[in-house]
Amino acid sequence: MKAMTLNAYGPDASFDETDLPRPMAGPGQVLVRVKATSVNTIDTMIKNMGRDLPLSPALPAILGMDFAGIVEEIGDGVTGYQVGDEVYGCAGGLADLQGALAEFIPADARLIAHKPKSHSMREAAALPLVGITAWEGLDRAGVTAGQKVLVQGGAGGVGHIAVQLARHLGAEVSATGTGADQLAVIEGFGARPIDFKSEEIEAYVGSHTGGAGFDAVFDSVGGANLTNSFAAAALNAQVVTTVALSEIDLSPAHFKGLSLHIVFMLLPMLHDHGREVHGKILAELAQLADAGAVKPLLDQPSFTFAKTGQAYGRLQSGKAIGKVVVEI
């Protein structure tokens, strides 16, 4: 099979097209012919940082976590799938799990689901990692109908799915972004847009919550921005973040009695723990997608397999609006 491999790590490292033996579906796996794979921030971090990240695969490496494709082979013990089924998932590209930047990926059947019938392969490949992350965060926060929810980074990969899922749950959703394009995306998904560069926290907390603060804050920006999320939260509110690799003062959270939830959706892949939960989430996301409640936003440029390096560069440029996808 053809694969895009990394033979070195670092910002200047390039992907090389390589011919490798076609893998086989082992016990509990399905072999998927990959049709599309999306690029996530964690993929670019692995490429640039390499073994400085404990989850990075050994070289030569095949990256790519998300994918959509067609089942070619079924391993022992797998039920619920047949050859020819269209599936999607997030099942490789880290540790000892082969990634999706290849013609075939042997995927743990617990980490995949039948793809949304209404979505193209390109759309389906954009959904798994961000969809699971958004789902887990809102679930941890206990978001329910009638609550006021703030999504920090509402036009981003995780953020724009969190906006849609929170609205599906019946919450009143506001979301931060900046610039006309990001604010239009946020508004297009039914949330109240907040330009964080021009609107003070006290001002939008006042106008969006009557000064009480948000019942739940989903912070997909994280890091230093968590202090802004604490400031926007109501007393005893729930704060969720996907980026907690930083040292911050938790005093504001203490004096509001906030509950802080850290979502790291790669744990099932890294530790083979609770993998079936991801499969169940993907199956439910597919149903919501087919019902029109969730749809990933795709970045406009289309990238072929040979332009994988350009796709990674596009995401790192900060110019992408929506998910960057490589078609194989």
From TrEMBL:
Whether Isomerase counts among this entry's keywords is no
Give the source's domain of life in one word: Bacteria
What range does the record give for the signal peptide? none
Keywords from the named record: Oxidoreductase
Q: Which GO terms describe its molecular function?
A: oxidoreductase activity; zinc ion binding
**Designated name of the protein:** Quinone oxidoreductase
Q: Which Gene3D superfamilies match?
A: Medium-chain alcohol dehydrogenases, catalytic domain, NAD(P)-binding Rossmann-like Domain
Which Pfam family, an example, fits this chain? ADH_N
Annotated ranges, domain Enoyl reductase (ER): 10-326
Give the SUPFAM superfamilies listed for this entry.
GroES-like, NAD(P)-binding Rossmann-fold domains
